[in-house]
Amino acid sequence: MGEHTTTRSEIERIKEASRLLMGDLETEIRNEHPEVGGESKQLLKFHGVYAQDNRDVRAVRKRAGQPLEHIYMVRVAIPGGRLSADQYLSLDTLARRTGSQSLRLTTRQGIQLHFISKHELGVVISAINESLLTTWGGCGDVVRNVVACVGIESAVKDLGLERLANDLSRRYKAPADAYLQLWIDGTRVPNEVLGAPPIDSSIYGPEMLPRKFKIAIATSADNCVDVLANDLGLVIDAQDPSKVRVYVGGGLGRSHSDDTTLARVAELLGEVSRDDVLAICDSVIALQREYGDRGDRSHARLKYLVGEWGIDRIRAEVERRSGVRILPTTPDTFSRTRDHLARTDQGDGHFGLGIKLPSGRIANSMAGPLLDRLRDFVKEFKPSLAITARGDMVLYDLASNQTDLIIERLADLALPVDSMLTPLQRESFACVGLPTCGLALAESERYLPELLEELSLCLSSLGVPDLALEVRITGCPNGCARPYLGEIGLVGRTKRSYDMYLGDTSNGRRLNALFAEDVDRDEIIPTLRRLLSLFLANRDGDERFGTFATRTGLARRDDLKPAPRRLRRALEVAK
Ligand code: SRM
Ligand code: SF4
């Protein structure tokens, strides 16, 4: 337990008493009630399930004296975001039969199904496991889905990111007895599929970790995964893959009401040889298990321990535990952060193509039959699939003419591919937010299309329709779409307002800066228009807006800020 901890949080007690994450789930998931109790809600997370309610009808139902509409979100953890055509098709089938009839690719390369009812959970989870995917460890105080760059070129594949992601993922699965007992017919899906070790050889004790723990793998040439937003970041040297740089203590979650919570990029621990990576990861996780704060969950991530101890003490402790000497080195500069949407020659006779999805959502909607179309491609061409850390989908191992056919067949959907995308469409994304996320303060995924349309019009009217620009929106400060690492970050504050962040994050190496708090939704475009006009008049060569914002200190320019929403409302009332 952390040396600074006095009392353990209630969730620690629940985990400890749960008999390795079983608790009362056996009875709770089988009874006739649509909801589960508070303790089961916490335990379900480890099984990859969030108990939620439909927030679109919450207030109306409350007013009418009706119970909440209880729904569940099921999260599939997919190491490195790679899945086969057959696995995708089985998720597609589930999406059609249950819940919201959509799939949602996540910003950590996972896939979520929303609006699942309690009685559907068993069918959904066992079907996912039968397709040799799993929800185990999708959520909860364990190592979460291990993310990795989705480069599909032979040269990137040879760096072995996918294999490392799989190794780490299996190594850090929690003992799965409860999971297997609750959801899986062991004769059809053996334990080896999960690869979860028994408790006596597991890195976790009965209380698991103090908090979620995130690992990402990038290469020195491409930081598409925002590796420094993770508790543990591994960067494989693209020139010499036997070298791995290790970073610790990244994390973005913060709270509007608690200034002691903060977003932080991971710090460089040093360089180790590839052979020593597992020993280093074990030691960092063990350190967090023992010293992470089990009293206060808002300060329980590794980033707070790194802040408190300092990187030198962390390094000394990791070296002592692992017996590995960590070599000093210089931080990566990352030459780029690719979106992986371009048509790509894999160099092995095959080709890949990225499909930009609206914040990772795959549904048949007013915008077009995207769910159907993707299913048809996957059925016909049997590609391999990779999910990017922006929630887009890369289809690969295709023949050259197949990428052309896909481009052709997507043309009628409001879903441009590759060169037809504007940079703004290409780069922007939002977190899930309303109506499912219980923590959302403002709209995010549902607001992004409208915002992008308005911003595109604004860019056209300024004479720069193809300006490279990135917007990341979240419905609250937890940062699920990593808004503090975007060129423009909008972070939900109230139903109608967002905090606005700006800056050059240097390929994910540093955070952007807070420009204005509590900006009314109606003020976002006029404010951006002012900023962009100034930028276009004073831009240095072809520099990006974010670079200009950082270079000229835009975040400090009070004259460019809109009045905070609360002040505007007070002035309106006073009129
Ligand atoms: Fe997240 C909580 C969705 C990536 C930081 N996140 C949530 C929950 C589960 C809300 C809840 O606790 O009740 C959201 C469910 C919404 C829904 O209805 O689906 C949620 N997070 C997501 C996803 C689906 C966003 C998306 O649009 O894709 C991402 C799922 C990833 C996955 O497959 O595992 C997702 N979340 C992230 C990221 C980005 C990343 O990891 O690269 C972050 C910022 C990095 C970090 O962890 O610091 C992130 N989510 C959080 C936090 C803040 C954690 C903290 O340390 O303070 C919370 C709240 C919490 O844990 O208490 C949270
Ligand atoms: Fe929910 Fe906030 Fe995460 Fe968005 S950033 S999904 S609103 S927790």
Structure write-up:
The protein starts with 9 loop residues before the first helix and ends with a helix. Among the domains are: 9-140 and 175-193, Alpha-Beta Plaits; 344-421, Sulfite Reductase Hemoprotein, domain 2 (Alpha-Beta Complex), CATH 3.90.480; 425-573, Sulfite Reductase Hemoprotein, domain 1, CATH 3.30.413.10. The chain contains 19 helices and 21 strands. Helices cover 32% and strands 17% of the residues. The mean pLDDT is 94. It has helices at 10-16, 25-28, 38-46, 58-63, 85-97, 121-130, 154-157, 161-171, 177-183, 277-291, 302-309, 311-322, 370-381, 400-410, 423-427, 448-461, 521-538, 545-552, 565-574; strands at residues 49-53, 70-76, 82-83, 102-105, 111-116, 147-148, 215-219, 232-236, 243-248, 267-273, 344-345, 351-355, 361-365, 368-369, 384-387, 393-398, 429-430, 471-474, 488-494, 497-502, 513-520.
